[in-house]
Amino acid sequence: MFSMILKGGPIMVLIIFLSIIAGVIIIERLLFFRRIRMDEEKFIDRLKSAIQKSHYDEALDICENNTTPLSNLMKVGILHRSYGKSEIKESILAAANLEVPQLERYLTSLGTIAHISPLLGLLGTVTGNIKAFGVLGNFGSVADPSLLATGISEALLTTAAGIIVSIPAVAFYNYLVGKANNTITSLENRVNDMVLFFGAGE
Q: Between 44 and 141, where is the model more confident?
């Protein structure tokens, strides 16, 4: 493994470094979405039960114990329950907008790594082939063709490495973007329900 990295040169080192960054981002995002996953209907029912009994401190505690985007919006709604519907909606929408960057965190970086890894691999192959064919330019001919073949095969290592990094990065990027978009859509659909619920007493 180490010898392959050395053969690939500095571009191979860069590809390996980017693969580590991509791996860290993927693991962090998977853990994040796992942490915010919950039974929304059960959570809403518990919250409604507490609010209908005017147990607002209990409702806030329920939100504090479930640190998810939805619970954060519900907490804002509880804190602004005494305002009119328009003020409640504005406060909840503002809170929802703050959740979007958290849901999309690091995804741009992961997408960038997914797209540039094959290009870096191709760059490594081009520069490697330039060096390999430079042998012919210096010596006119190569007595042992295997020397040239070895140089070319080593140059192709970076292309393989770039593709190997790119494939899982693209797959996880699309998956995580889908998870983020679904969560954002769910929050948007919940906003009007929350406004009607908290503004019912207006």
A: 44
